[in-house]
Amino acid sequence: MAIKCVICAENHDSRTCPQKNLETPVKKCANCGGPHNASNRRCPKFPKIKSNEVKKGYSYAAAAKTTTTQSNPQPTTQHTTPTYSAQNSAPPSITQLKDDFSDVFRLLNHLKTITQPIPNISFYTRILCKRT
Fold first, then answer.
1. Residue 74 has what DSSP assignment?
2. pLDDT of 36-87, one tens digit each?
3. For residues 90 and 94, which has the higher predicted lDDT (pLDDT)?
4. Dist. CA 56–CA 63, nearest whole Å
5. Where are the compositionally biased (Low complexity) regions (predicted)?
6. pLDDT (average), residues 11-27
7. Which residue from 22, 27, 80, 109 has the fewest beta carbons nearer than 10 Å?
8. What is the DSSP string of 9-66?
């Protein structure tokens, strides 16, 4: 992928852009070609952040799931046990599962060290839980 300047849309890094230090730089969007920087939030091609409201009794997975309509829905088959064939991926190995759990525990320990210096964190957590 080629480098595009966010200031003038030319093929160079924005840190070395000749327009950067000018009093009135000529701006050109690398996304839509408009007269603004590519990082401008008003650009029609700028990615929009979706905000999902927190609802009590509504899971994160259901809130994050995007609803798409299918013109020809595929028939679903239910399996009581997972099936593995030569075409499908093999079940995760014990070593992989151990590594995954190790990563989770490492993350939890890291979060613990981050939150330990915060005084009364359990009090504030309870207040936040009551508000949702």
1. P
2. 888 888 888 888 877 766 677 777 777 777 655 455 556 566 656 655 555 5
3. 94
4. 11
5. 65-83
6. 87
7. 80
8. -SSS-GGG-TTTTSSS-----TTT--SS-TT-TT-TTSPPPP-----TT--HHHHHPP
Could you give the CA distance from residue 27 to residue 31 in angstroms, rounded to a whole number?
12
DSSP state of 104: H
Q: Which of 34, 30, 31 is nearest to 13 (CA)?
A: 30
Closest CA to 14 of 92, 23, 25: 25
Contacts of 76 (CB under 8 A, 6+ apart): none
Q: What pTM value is reported for the model?
A: 0.35
Q: What value, to the nearest 5°, has the Cα angle with vertex 107 and ends 101 and 109?
A: 105
8-state DSSP, 81: S
End-to-end CA distance of the chain: 43
